[in-house]
Amino acid sequence: MKEKDVASVLTELGWVCSKDEVGDYFCVTDVDGVKVQVIPSVKKRSDHFRVSLMPSVSTKEFSETVAFVWGEGSGYSPVIVSNEPPEKLPEFSSDDVLRMSEKAMSWARSQNIESGLMVYRSLPTDSKGAMPLRHLAALAIAGDVERLNGYKKSFEMGDRLGFVPCITDGMIDRAVLKAKLAK
Question: Which residues of the chain are under the pLDDT cut of 70?
Answer without folding.
Answer: none
